[in-house]
Predict the structure.
Amino acid sequence: MNNRNTLAIIIPAYKSKFLSEALDSIAAQTCKNFTLYIGDDCSPNNIKEIVEQYNDKINIVYQRFNSNLGSKDLVAQWERCIDMVQDEEWIWLFSDDDVMDLNCVEEFYKTIKNNPNNGLIHFNVNRLNNSTNTIDELPLFPKKCSTRYYIDEKLKGHLISFVIEFVIRKDIFYAQGRFQNFDLAWGSDFISWIKFSNVTNGIITCNNAKVQWRKSDENISPNKENSILYRKIKSLILNTKWISDFAKDKGYGNRTFYMKRPLGEILKERKNLTQKQKKDLLSYYNKILNPTHSCKLLMFCLKFL
């Protein structure tokens, strides 16, 4: 195997609570052919002190930014950390609180050797439940899946994905315009993996190693604060517009399937939204999406719930 580091692992760092666990899992890799880039988002926590404990275990490039960006534009923070990468050919955006199996890097190199024409590599995921200290096995991806399969199964709830289990070839990342940026980064990863997989001959999954995604109170995902929830659903409407246009361009058919998701979210969260917010979201959905007749019927019903 070529010993040149062609893999960059990137951590946009802000939280320190589980950072050591993330770095422990990276330091334990059976293959050390990678560079770890850590972009400190002007954190008030002791990020640098924690990172310095690993300088003799991992090839690390650390940078502390002078301003906090993630609280305003999380995708922009991801991207300025990715811009730290030097001559590595592959980029793996990881996180400051998740962990990877000790053979992830080794399996990554085996996978790209066996699939030289693919540019998007994926690991299956387990969910670490921080409150209960348990691990859930999430649905497995097939060894290879098409873009359409990924979209359809994700929208059906049969697949679950995040940002931390994909590795993208750097030239493709930049050629395709980086990540799709939505408010709160809500859906930015999903839409970006669709965009990238469309030009990389689908998604190839490493079956012999997994990533552990941590579910905790520090994630934005479970945040039901009223104003945050409203912004999430507005972003979801824009995600859906992107997917609907993509599906139409590809001739996937069944427009209702590709555009109904925000309505289901409004229905599910209606008790956490004010009447004005619900009305505004339905109006925004109608303006952005040009909904099908079936979706208009659902909108009409939602007005009375």
Summary: The radius of gyration is 20 Å. The CA atoms of residues 160 and 213 lie 11 Å apart.
